[in-house]
Amino acid sequence: MDQWTAERWVNDVHIKSPLPASDPAWRADVLTQALLFATGIVPGFAALAQRPVQAVIGLQSAPGRADPDIGYPVGSVHLYQLVQQEDDARLRIESDAQPVLVVTSHGT
Q1: Fewer CB atoms near the end CB (10 Å): N or C, the chain?
Q2: pLDDT at 98
Q3: Domain residue limits at 68
Q4: Is 101's pLDDT higher than 60?
Q5: Are 13 and 77 in contact (CB under 8 A)?
Q6: How many domains does the chain have?
Q7: What is the b/e burial string over 57-71, where b = at least 16 CB atoms within 10 angstroms of the residue's CB?
């Protein structure tokens, strides 16, 4: 796997909810948790990396649909550095597992 894929795979955080995935509130709960996590960690990650970074938040509400290796409903936050322009997740958003939101920080 290339460096971008390896970093994204290693820096994968699963977000779970006590609600059943069949509950319409499940998606909102998982997305809220993922967004709180991403907005809390991304600025520090960008400062540490000294380059732009992204967090891609995804939802898989049914086992095996978007990612057959995951047999349970889960939210995910993938973190990685933007080493080159092609690494920007917004360029490949439709090919990732049910992406919902991309958070980007250019650091300051």
Answers
A1: C
A2: 61
A3: 3-105
A4: yes
A5: yes
A6: 1
A7: bbbbbeeeebeeeee
